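Collaborator request log, item 7. Partner lab (contact: R.S.) asked for a structural prediction of Methylamine utilization protein MauE to inform their binding assays.
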Amino acid sequence: MLDTVQNTKKAVIHRMGMPGHTCPYGLKAKHLLERAGYDVEDRHLTTREETDAFKREHGVATTPQIFIGTDRIGGHDNLRRFLGKKVADPKAITYRPVAVLFSMTALTAMAASYAVSGDAFTLRAAEWFIAFSMVVLSLLKLQNVESFATMFLNYDLLAKRWVPYGYIYPYAEGLAGILMVAGALDWISVPVALFIGTIGAVSVFKAVYIDRRELKCACVGGSSNVPLGFISLTENLMMIAMAAWMAAVSLGFVGRHAM
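Returned to partner:
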């Protein structure tokens, strides 16, 4: 039967198309079908009553619904499977969020360095990369600080002893990052970054490498599926390294770069 269905290059899609609502999955399904070479008959369900009647008639809970020939393929995800495309698993473990984040902050730091000095590969670019990463990571945590703090409590040693620390942490990380971007008030940014970075590194190392616990990392917010481990440890080690470097610069052990 599948061979017959796949050889039929005509498809019908029933999707919601109301004045106050356009079904995004319906549009995505229509795009998939057209890219796959199907002649698509696009049928809109223009009222809630019409939508509910369609669902009852076909015994389905959601729209859009795609038909090819006389066979109902199903909704958007079923269509992707039918076309041999991957369907994202919202619960799947992934490093994509942090890979994208660090790539973008690195490129932004290089762009800023180039704009200021004409050279993308400078010591200042390396400093900005860490500082920009801290700011963006804090922003992601602060999107839902309650969710972050709850996940953070699973492994952070200080937060377990003093719950408010889980709410303070993203603000402290963001403040330290902003001051490091500016190269100002090192007497605030250095101890803050050193403090939260050290506690974080010890906490992650204990949870992952000593206790062997399998946890999700709160580093990119409380709703992420990034596993706790090397990436989380890297975030904290970056803060420690940046704090140590800024302290060395402030104390005159190394010369401050010129721009």
